[in-house]
Specification:
Blueprint lengths: L2 E4 L5 H12 L3 E6 L3 H13 L4 E5 L5 H15 L4 E4 L14 H29 L2 E6 L2 H5 L5 H21 L4 E8 L12 H10 L8 H12 L10 E4 L6
Parallel strand pairs: 1-2, 1-4, 2-3, 4-5, 5-6, 6-7
Helix pairs in contact: 1-8, 3-4, 4-6
Amino acid sequence: MRTVLITGASRGIGAACARVFARDGYRVAIHYHHSKQKAESLCGELIAAGCDAMTVCADVSDGAAVREMVAAVEKRFGCIDVLVNNAGIAMQKLFTDTADDEWEKMISTNLGSVFYACKAVAPAMIRAHSGCIVNIASMWGEVGASCEVAYSAAKAGVIGLTKALAKELGPSGIRVNAVSPGVTMTDMMKGFSDEDVAALRDETPLCALGKPEDIARAVVFLASDNACYITGQILGVNGGMVI
């Protein structure tokens, strides 16, 4: 039985990933930072369905905390076979109004966390000559978004990290890929008006916005044996908005 650690798994895309991995027979480690009740509720749901699951709390922008998180999962489940770096924050703000601390928080949470988690799981994966990492990027990391410069920059960093790390870890039998979602109806969309959401839907060639499950299915595919010859790739799941 394989083990997956999913950061930011208490809700949205992360929770959807946890459910799909559980259905595929994985042991699931559910990471959270602030949403303890939601994480524990999800964990209970998965256990009731027959999955071996646990929760783990950490500030993923802190390297030491991430190392402790990974150690806790390894102690309970053994080697982590799949890491899904999903934790992240969003911010819509003019570039000229973005404060230094807001920039630093965005980069440390959305990009630093990926670095820390990959670095923490890599040694055991290298020893096992096996493993899979799937990072959650964003289409804005590919093409940029007005009023989301910090977010776009952080996600562009995730894309660069993914491609470079895939080359470095490939000889050790480890695959590293990313899923790049389009507009997806999660808590990150709370700040958008109904008119904004409708406009985004109209701009999408499939005339629909993404659901967390759409992203989760792509993540699980990249982690599966069906993707055994895929690494260093950025899989766009965006309804055709970015091609």
